[in-house]
Amino acid sequence: MAVHHGPIEERINWLLDLAHRHTAEFRSPDACLAREHYQARHPTAIVVLKCMDGRIDVPVVTQTPPGIIQPFRNLGGMFDLGWPYLGEVLANHIHRQIAAGKRVLLLITYHFSRGSEKRGCAGFGYNTQAAIDFTGRIKEQAERIFGASHATVYPIICGLETDEDALLIHGRDGRVLDLSRIDSGAAGHLRSRVEELFPDMNGQMQKDLTRLLQGNLNWMAKVRQRGRTLEIEHREWMICLGRGFDFLHTPNLALIIGPYSPDLADPIRKAAGIIENNMKAGRIPDDGFLLFASVPYEDIGPDQARAELKSRFLADFASQVIRTHHPHLAERMHRLTAVLSWRSRALSLLPEA
Length: 353
Description:
Blueprint: H1 8-27, H2 29-41, E1 45-51, H3 58-61, E2 69-74, H4 84-99, E3 104-112, H5 128-146, E4 153-161, E5 166-170, E6 176-178, H6 190-197, H7 203-226, E7 238-242, E8 254-257, H8 265-280, E9 289-297, H9 302-325, H10 327-330, E10 333-341, E11 347-349
Parallel strand pairs: 1-2, 1-3, 3-4, 7-8, 7-9, 9-10
Antiparallel strand pairs: 4-5, 5-6, 10-11
Helix pairs in contact: 6-7, 8-9
């Protein structure tokens, strides 16, 4: 069944099966031991701020075991660390890592395509320089919050060229390390390049960043060897609101809205407009779309109960926005409301109230 063209019921079933397979893989003995082994060798905690685009899959392009990298995703990769909820969630996560004795590498990402401007980031109107400038402002905010000396938290601007999945690392002095330009035979010099770009970075963190870059070189070699079909046309058929959508890394499938902005209605309206246009243009079937709300929880009991209430609130809020601004689309709306165990990545669907 084609993910974009089957009946809506089949597409939803495909999605739930994808989530189930992701959970099973994450909880497998091999995956658990791989995470433990990786963290023992590379203790630096890694946080990534990134776009909702399914192509931006940092664990895959760096060959890092699932569950190591903590993602924050939003439409266009647009964040403001002054947003109350985002600041709270990010700060709490970083403080937990520091309390465990770890330093934190904060990757602030943008993406673009060398082959076609229209394969770039629609959130910035396909203007890569505008995206870079925006990530620079986030980096300044991070340094204001966590310190400019980078002793514990080190923010880095990181580009991703999606045609080859190549990382571009922006150094302190304005130099950029473009991994697509590095010959595989020169990979042994990666550590020295990292030291040149970030001379004030802790030695262990330099080592752990180098491992990410080496993983990216290995991944690019696979991409170049097998080739790939480049997706140009947007065919999203679902709106995902909340957190816990790490299993969704299929291009042009979902519009993911993190619950971070003080004005949630605006991105919901825009996402609904995109899906309605996709239907009108025949890029997706017009028999329905999915509104999917998900909220993660750490512990059973009150934390899980609060996550359930929050997930239902998000679904109800988004439904009302869509009914108000896109009433014809609302008639074709299907809803899923769920919570996600952050420890096991088990997704639990909630019954409709």
